[in-house]
Amino acid sequence: MLTMTFLITLCVLAPMGGGFKALMLSGNGLYHHTLCPIISVLSYVLWEPYSSFWLLPVIVTTVYGLVMLYMNWKLAFDGPYPFFRVHNQSPAATVLWMLGLIAFITVLSLAIIAVTGKEGSKKAAANSPERQLAAEATNTEKSVFTEGTENKMKIIYFAGGCFWGTQKFFDQFEGVTATEVGYANGPTENPSYQEVCAKSGHAETVRVEYDSSRISLEKLIEYYFMTIDPLSYHRQGADMGIQYRTGIYYVDEEDLPVIETCYAKEQEKYKRKMEVELLPLENFYTAEEYHQKYLDKNPGGYCHIPRALFDLQANG
Fold first, then answer.
1. How far apart are CA 218 and CA 74, in angstroms?
2. C-alpha gyration radius of the chain
3. Backbone angles phi, psi at 177, to 5 degrees
4. Which of 30, 50, 244, 263 could form a disulfide with 26 if both were Cys (CB 3.0 to 4.6 A apart)?
């Protein structure tokens, strides 16, 4: 992304007063300009943990760039120092080149922020009402669905790569009463999608609520293994990264023997050890609304699961 940003900006700079040669060989001026992105990134890294004011580096970049623009304007028109000019370009061309440089540095700063996956401080995200509710729901869920054996409503969590397709797949089955996509078993609270994509350590996971009198846990696990490559490490289909790992996460200890039996049965099909995690649920944070039922809203959206499996129930 940074390379693409550089190339696109370079194309903009080319007709504005010097192009590639001017950008790379502008003498002492370039030495000073290199401080701008450094200051911008440092300001973001140092300030971000303490504030949700994530535009600070862009503001720093702009202020610094305007100061440099003013200095070059004065030197180009009034000053006796020709080395501040871009290869003897006219004052107007020098100013245009500086404007292009400011634009380049600003876009570069934004690209760095985008790549790091931070849209605000984690503190601000954790304090949002939606995230607090998600955290509370996760903590209470473990006790609610383990109270007594008479309650036939159960919950299991499946991490099967991109959660769009996994949710669509489980929604088809009779006995599955609700599904929800979110981020599970990560080291931090209330992650955003951008943070998960930046390797926060959470797994894209589907919370499956089901009526155990209508569909068994064994059947759900059997269906789950139909949608994944259990030997693939941190990858399903074209999706790669720790958030695409596979796993079965349980909230009821009584479900563990059933899960282990199904897991062992699936393992018998392979010589290599499967890469599917089998763990208790540590945490689960509901994903953003636009991720919920994504493939229903966007039928042509990407999915690593074969489309034919979405009609498995209907086709008997």
1. 76
2. 27
3. -95, -25
4. 30
> What is the sign, positive or negative, of the torsion defined by CA atoms of 103, 106, 111, 112?
positive
The crossing angle, in degrees rounded to 10, of helices 35-47 and 56-77 is: 160
pLDDT at 21: 36
Could you tell me the sign of the dihedral formed by the alpha carbons of 111, 115, 119, 121, in that order?
negative
pLDDT, one tens digit per residue, over 108-122 is 666 555 444 433 333
User: Which pLDDT score is estimated for 264?
Assistant: 98
* Domain residue limits, the chain: 2-116, 123-311
Fold adopted by 123-311: Peptide Methionine Sulfoxide Reductase; Chain A (3.30.1060)
Q: Is the pTM of this model over 0.90?
A: no
Q: Which of 162, 197, 262, 303 is the catalytic position?
A: 162
Per-residue model confidence (pLDDT) at position 177 = 97
124: CB partners within 8 A, 6+ apart: 52
Residue 304 half-sphere exposure toward CB, CA atoms < 13 A: 17
The single residue listed with the structure tokens 């990264």 is: 241
Residue 11 annotated in active site: no
Length of the chain: 316
In the chain, DSSP finds a helix count (H) and a strand count (E) of 13, 8
Q: Which two tokens stand for residue 293?
A: 């039922």
State the pLDDT confidence band at 152, using cuts at 50, 70 and 90.
Answer: confident
Per DSSP bridges, beta strands 176-184 and 203-211 are: antiparallel
Predicted confidence (pLDDT) at residue 272 exceeds the cutoff of 70: yes
One DSSP character per residue, 23-49 reads HH--THHHHHHTHHHHHHHHHHHHHGG
Buried b / exposed e over 197-222, threshold 16 CB at 10 Å, is ebebebbbbbbbbbeeeebebeebbe
